[in-house]
Amino acid sequence: MSDTKITALPAATTPTEADLLPIVQGIGNVPVTRRTSLAGLRAGLLADRPVHVRDFGAAGNGVADDGPAIQAAIDALAAAGGGTLLFGPRHYRIASPVVINDVSVVLQGAGYTEGPDAADGTWILLDTTGFTPFTFTGLGARGSAVRDLAVRQTHTAAQDPSWAPTDYPFVFRVVDCYGAVDFENVFLCAVNRGIFCDNSGRLNIQRLRGQVFTVGVEVDRCYDVARLQHVHFWPFWTGDTDVLRWQQANTDCLVLRRCDGVFLDDIFGLACRSVVRLASSAAGVTTKFYLGKGYADFAKYGVWVEGDGVTGQIACLTTQGELINGAGAPLAGSSGLRLDGSNAQIQVGNLRVEACESHAIRIGGQGNRLDVFALRCERFNTLNDGSAALHIADSGAGTANQVFLGTPPVVANGNGGPLVNTGTNGKASQAAVAPAGTANAVQINGAAAGSAPGIAATGTDANVSLSLAAKGGGAILAGAPIQIPSYAVGALPTAAGFPRCLIYVANGAGNRRLAVSDGTTWRWPDGTVVS
Questions:
Q1: What are the DSSP calls for 295-306, one per residue?
Q2: The domain that contains 151 carries what CATH number?
Q3: Residue 312 domain-assigned?
Q4: Which of 44, 353, 467, 496 has a CA positioned 20 to 30 A from the CA of residue 29?
């Protein structure tokens, strides 16, 4: 090599991958001058490091289709055994599909500025329908992730009463991974459908925000615990009344079909049909779901149960069902909690329902059981048609629906509407009181208008007597005449089932005599056996 100074060499204005470069490499105490190509130098320096989409030709100018460049980068990562793909703070338009197939790849953005339009940070721009922008599939894709980026779709319809979104498919599809793919700090701005997960357990979504139009997240065939946390759907793109009213009729923030033990927490949705929709598929329904904190604002339904056999728990849920810019009027048919399926078993710790046209809670189907510890219903029955806060459908010949209230509900501003509707074989019961360590309890049963509430004995024993006792010299008082049931001699109930109970027994020619059970036999007041 000549002694020409580096500063005297001509500039390489357009270096190529094959250009040779001199390098001085230390070997022991003796430096050795060697040569390498630009490609070889890059490979050596960047081995096991993240790759950047711009290294594979992505323009990031919001105009060119960067889908092929992103796919080329993912293919290179697949050949190297996976890794992280960096997206700089640019606008990447995608007009062709990108598939992460059987390789673990992290799509790492540079953050984003919340707002109605693509701004600072990493933005994925979509203006073409008919394809899925990102698909994760195959066993090897487990452990992949999408982080710190925003997605924006273009909708050109005029914002008037006929507005509807452009019918884009899901942005992200996680299919047949059988394991986890994570989404963290993702912003869906004016997105028709966001994330779809099928046959892939342990889905993990954290810090998902945006404005969605048809579905935010849909999950099916998730046979291991999925987690959806810190979800916030709000009008980031537009607060136009026509758009938000379309959402109130059509948007389901989270749709869960066959999910086993899904954890939901810190879930908020504004202007939607439902915040959590528990639907079904050919694979089944959601069981053992857990919702920690939920808030449905300007939503037709807070939680909507469609599938049969749904089971789960809700710790805290607040719902408000007003029509957007409707001067306080509620949405037609709105309910805080709606059960349309059958044989659901749902427990609720704290439930507040406000602004419902008719019913705060509506239970259809048959065989449903709803347990609510603390219930507050505000501003229901706004039609003033006598709608009950709690509507329980008559199941006909099917198993009756049941509601158990752990504490007396607060029912306010309902235009005189009752707690429970009439004309149903459903039952609403309140306050089963049992001291700790006991087998039997007192159950206070509510009733629909026109029916009498009751106090009943319940418990594990086959026969449970009900004892009323005053304290000290106090008396048991009745504010109205006490009615003692009457039976014919041939229709006497078993005495063992009515210990120390009084009845009237027909004694010929329309006469009745008082009889008492000693737990074994019915006897007349003189002690003789009724016969």
A1: EEEEEEEEEEE-
A2: 2.160.20
A3: no
A4: 44
From 238, 267, 293, the end of a domain falls on 238
> Whole-angstrom Cα distance, residue 263 to residue 290?
5
Which residue reads 């807070």 in tokens? 302
Matching residue, tokens 């050596």: 44
Amino acid at 397: A
- 473 burial level (CB within 10 Å; 0-12, 13-18, 19+): exposed
Q: Domain containing 70: what range?
A: 44-238
Tokens 């806060």 correspond to 389
Q: Give the angle 183-184-185 at the CA atoms, nearest 5°.
A: 130
Q: Which helix (H) or strand (E) holds 16?
A: none
Judge contact between 116 and 138, C-beta under 8 A.
no
Of 210, 238, 266, the last residue of a domain is 238
pLDDT tens digit string along 452-490?
A: 677 777 666 767 777 777 767 777 777 777 778 788 877
Q: What pTM did the predictor assign?
A: 0.79
Both tokens assigned to 468: 């009323």
Cα(128)–Cα(122) distance, integer angstroms: 19
**With contact defined as beta carbons under 8 Å apart, do 171 and 195 qualify?**
yes
